[in-house]
Design brief:
alpha/beta, 15% strand, TIM Barrel, 306 residues, two-stranded antiparallel ribbon
Length: 306
């Protein structure tokens, strides 16, 4: 609604957020880096007279200047505290329900970062703590300092990396796993048939999985999933989202959209169920490592705590 995926309309975005509440969705995820603060302000405006109906999550850690340039990652305690105050102001709220470290800072011990985040809980500015793209080992270290409520990492039919131990660590510690980009940045919905379907300023034009031969090879996965979705009487997006939710009871998915129609389609995925044979079929269609290309460009891949 603020950056990366082509043009968005403010009034339409607010309407979609309100409609999400009306159909029973109550978990909203933003970050200070989305639109360099724009998205926090947008979400805060949309929820202003509905705050008691929403669970509000935001994130810090990706440092950008006012022009949007990425300056790196910070988990320094002073930065944690300052970022929280700025997010509270943009959101227009007194407390953030779930506050994530967006990317782990390799230069700052996770114990120091989470210690500062825990201070925010004690100060009443934050209710619960989360991490994003943190390894199982980092999660365990963080959890020893203060309970981590949620770990957010990319997870979908074409990104199954968390199955290497992160999902199990979350289950062991009682941490909710939040799947972001559960639709493969829209690719798994089947709506993107070629790179020309993306707006000129859509960042996915530079994502390795959307490039050249990679696009064609990855679309072969989508084509098989589409065929299965037709047989099952659901949309490809509902098949992909339903698969994520079916993997474990401690998994939540956060698909993003600017459209009422897509919002309703995604929400209906919560009712999709699978037989054992269907899950095995999807495993065969999109086994771990099936997607071609890294999930981010090289610079962004370096920021992941793998």
């Amino acid at each position: 609604m603020s950056e990366f995926y082509g043009p968005a309309d403010r009034e339409q975005s607010i309407d979609v957020i309100h409609h999400a509440l009306d159909i029973g969705i109550n978990f909203f995820d933003t970050a200070d880096m989305y639109g360099v603060g724009h998205n926090e302000a947008l979400v805060g405006e949309a929820l202003r007279d509905r705050r008691n109906r929403a669970i509000l999550a935001t994130k810090f850690g990706n440092v950008r200047n006012e022009q949007g340039a990425f300056l790196g990652v910070s988990g320094h305690p002073d930065y944690v505290r300052a970022s929280c105050d700025r997010s509270l102001q943009r959101l227009g709220v007194d407390v953030i329900d779930l506050y994530y470290q967006h990317r782990v800072d390799p230069a700052v011990p996770i114990e120091d970062t989470v210690g500062a985040m825990a201070d925010l809980v004690r100060a009443g500015k934050v209710r619960f703590l989360g991490l994003s793209e943190a390894s199982a080992a980092t999660l365990r270290r963080a959890h020893a300092v203060h309970p981590i409520t949620a770990l957010q990492t990319e997870y979908s039919l074409w990104t199954r990396d968390p199955e290497d131990g992160t999902l199990a660590a979350c289950a062991d510690l009682g941490v909710t796993f939040v799947s972001y980009s559960p639709l493969g940045r829209g690719f798994l919905s089947g709506a993107i048939r070629s790179i020309d379907d993306l707006a000129p300023d859509d960042y996915r034009r530079h994502n390795p999985r959307f490039q050249g031969e990679n696009f064609a090879k990855n679309f072969a996965i989508v084509a098989q999933a589409e065929a299965m979705a037709r047989e099952k009487g659901v949309t490809p997006a509902q098949l992909a989202l339903g698969w994520v939710l079916a993997q474990a009871p401690h998994i939540v998915a956060i698909p993003g959209t600017r459209s009422r129609g897509r919002l309703e389609e995604n929400a209906a995925a919560a009712t999709v169920t699978f037989s054992g044979d269907e899950l095995r079929r999807l495993d065969a269609i999109a086994p771990p490592g099936a997607a071609v290309g890294t999930r981010y460009a090289a610079a962004a891949m370096k920021a992941l705590n793998l």
